[in-house]
Structure formats: C-alpha cells, structure tokens
Amino acid sequence: MSSLDFSNAVTLQGFVIPALSQRRAETEVILKDGESFAIAGLIDNRVVETMSRVPGIGDLPVLGRLFRSRSTQKSTDELLVVITPHFVRPLSAEEKAKLPDMPAAFLPAVAEKNAKPAKKSKNKSQAPASKDVEFVGPRGQQIPKQ
Length: 146
Fold this sequence. Notes:
Strand order of the largest sheet: 1-2
Order of helices and strands: EEEEHEE
Strand content: 35-45%
C-alpha cells in the first residue's frame, strides 16, 4: 500500500513533490475454495507537527514565542487484507455458462416510465409491481405508492 509522504518531499522550481511511503506484506498460504485468510498489523503511526509564526517578530529570541503557534496531528492507520479464493474450472463443450439472474430492475426503463399506469388490483396481498413503485433518493430506494 502506498501513501503520500510530505515529510520527505522534494521542491523543484517551486513545486512540492511528495515522496511515497510504502507498506508491504508477503506470505504464502494454502486455502481451500471459499476459505478466508486475513492479514492485519500493518500499522502506520504518523505525527505531523506544524509550526507557524509571524514573519520577523516570530524570529526574536524571547518575544518570538508569543508570536508562534505549534500544532501536532497524530494519526494511526491499520491495513487489513482479507482473501477468499473461489476457484474457476473450465466448462466442457456440452455445458453452457449460467448467467446471473436479475430479480428486479434497479431503475425503471424508459418504456416503463412512459407506459400507461396499470389498473390497480383488488388483491392487496401481492407485492407491488415495478410500475407501482416510486424511485426516490440518490441510490434509488423504492417506496410503494399508496
């Protein structure tokens, strides 16, 4: 995993180019189909200390401390990697690949939107049809019409 490291940055012609800090893990495991394996403990502890001062007055030996400020930012990040293998076997010439089933459309098609509304059934125990659903929200949550 790589992240930007501004403490080891290089300045070229006024541009600050940060270095890359990398964390790596390498291991070998034997897993069966569907078994999971987790690696944790790649911890990144960072302490960023920033000092700002008023130009000129902040450089004075004794009075300069009144015109300086120092802030410290601490962060701890841990990388967790979970691996679950699923083995794929080739199909024979007679077999056909099974395609995934889509139980319901995420959003209605344009034809469904422009179609005339269906007659309401008297049996309210049935699940609402896709035309009886109002789509709202940024993720398309479905709310049945009353």
